[in-house]
């Protein structure tokens, strides 16, 4: 058995995290709960590329609403390799901006963008549900333990269809999240948040203020570990997705996996085995 000294559950510093075997086991158990909910909802499991084109994110007003989060995957200028960093270097060594080329690709900050892009132009005869997991990236003002990381894991369960179907999708999973939290002994507050997909000055944002469509599930420390999001027809319009001849509405349920690990470590006073037993003892959800 590996020692705790070699493989502690979590080794995190400066926004980077390594999960040891104990934390990986808990992470897998958590994701099994979420994918169980997805399977019960009839969601297909799909994996998308780790990068997104600049042009595709621009289609979704990403650079209007989230320029502060954006991280680009820029090519390195190799015309003069002698000017590139070489060992030994300082810990904060950087590639200068003049050594980078124009970036056509981005590190996505949410898992669902590629799901809508993959269905762009689709003409569906019925609602579609899917689930995906992705490594997401955000530029933050500061990085704090498992709460805020350079790269983190997001599991999403997504519904694409008519307004009634996608809203029901959120209601179902909101109930499941609260039931799961109660089982785990987590005290979560449900808070209305501004929908990040809408231009703050647009008509959808005005509707958002009148009829809130994003709710976050927040732990006692003020950390949002999950959210339910109703996008109205925003992605259906921008990605040109029709369901039964009508512009698609969409919704998603999102889980920040490392944040769940953070709150569970606190809830069980660092006893990762006890947290694992609590997660795995949650009754599975069955279809219908």
What does this structure look like?
It is a single chain. This protein is of the alpha+beta class and about 290 residues long. About 30% of the residues lie in helices and about 25% in strands. It has nine helices and 15 strands. It has helices at about 20-40, 55-60, 60-65, 115-120, 165-185, 205-210, 235-240, 255-265, 270-280, and strands at about 10-15, 15-20, 45, 50-55, 70-75, 105, 125, 130-135, 150-160, 190, 215-220, 225-230, 240-245, 245, 250-255. It has a seven-stranded mixed sheet. Strand 11 (about 215-220) and strand 12 form a beta hairpin. The longest helix is centred in the middle third of the chain and has 22 residues, at about 165-185. It is flat and about 60 Å long. The model has no long low-confidence stretch (mean pLDDT about 90). It comes from Streptomyces hesseae.
């Amino acid at each position: 058995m590996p020692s705790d000294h070699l493989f502690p559950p979590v080794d995190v510093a400066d926004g980077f995290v390594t999960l040891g075997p104990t934390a990986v086991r808990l992470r897998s158990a958590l994701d099994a709960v979420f994918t169980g909910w997805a399977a019960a909802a009839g969601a297909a499991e799909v994996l998308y590329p780790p990068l997104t084109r600049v042009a595709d994110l621009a289609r979704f007003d990403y650079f209007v609403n989230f320029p502060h989060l954006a991280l680009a995957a820029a090519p390195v200028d190799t015309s003069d390799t002698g000017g590139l960093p070489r060992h030994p270097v300082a810990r904060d060594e950087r590639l200068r901006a003049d050594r980078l080329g124009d970036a056509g690709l981005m590190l996505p900050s949410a898992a669902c963008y590629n799901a809508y892009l993959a269905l762009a132009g689709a003409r569906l005869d019925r609602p579609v549900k899917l689930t995906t997991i992705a490594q997401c990236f955000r530029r933050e003002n500061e990085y704090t333990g498992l709460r805020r990381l350079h790269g983190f894991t997001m599991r999403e369960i997504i519904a694409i269809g008519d307004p009634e179907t996608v809203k029901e999708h959120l209601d179902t999973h909101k109930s499941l999240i609260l039931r799961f939290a109660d089982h785990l002994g987590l005290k979560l507050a449900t808070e209305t948040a501004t929908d990040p997909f809408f231009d703050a000055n647009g008509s959808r944002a005005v509707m958002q203020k009148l009829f809130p469509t994003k709710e976050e599930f927040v732990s006692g420390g003020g950390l949002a570990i999950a959210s339910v999001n109703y996008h109205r027809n925003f992605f259906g319009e921008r990605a040109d997705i029709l369901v039964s001849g009508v512009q698609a509405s969409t919704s998603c349920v999102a889980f920040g996996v490392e944040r769940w690990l953070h709150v569970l470590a606190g809830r069980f006073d660092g006893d990762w085995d006890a947290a694992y037993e609590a997660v795995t003892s949650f009754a599975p959800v069955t279809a219908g």
